[in-house]
Amino acid sequence: xxxxxxxxxxxxxxxxxxAAERRVLAAAASFRLLEAxxxxxxxxxxxxxxxxxxxxxxxxxxxxxxxxxxxxxxAHPGELLELGRSMRPGRHDxxxxxxxxxxLAVWPMQAWHGLLREMxxxxxxxxxxxxxxxxxxxGRLVEIAxxxxxxxxxxxxxxxxxxxxxxxxxxxxxxxxLSRQDLAALTGTTLHNxxxxxxxxxxxxxxAGGRRTLLVRDIPALMELATAP
Length: 229
Known about the structure:
11 strands; alpha+beta
């Protein structure tokens, strides 16, 4: 299945390209579907392809020193998986797993590097995305180093609300399945801590939800929890 060039027009990395350049870019890509839980690639495998998320959410996980998975980030539509690999060869630094059904645009790495030479404007978009990704990673590092677990979790949930919040009558729902284990791996804590904290927030009416979904009922209260001394 081919890629519609109009899908690429909305992607930040390709915003500066002409319509003709986007057609060339789309023609070089293939379309790939992932089911929930399916892995796109694994840590340590050769990075032979570049992948752009068109729909769905992908978690990028890395094995820690204790063999526990750490979620480096969650990739949303319009984001490249492992942005750094778009400019240099190597092996995958993380494992990419679909949190829900997802679709990807996929370029063979050799073809991608040829496109970079033909379309230098892509590099500008990639540099901007890389700077944004680095800034977000630094922000999370500061959170882990300086905030206690409840505030780290509150910050993470607020980010997900901004990135994937869907308004409902009862509040704002994070629009993809997110387990408590995922939230623990995203915030550098344990499943026990996440379960204890979320249960307390549910009793206070700040959030609601089951094991695989999260509804934020009171965003101002959650913001207070994120900034409480």
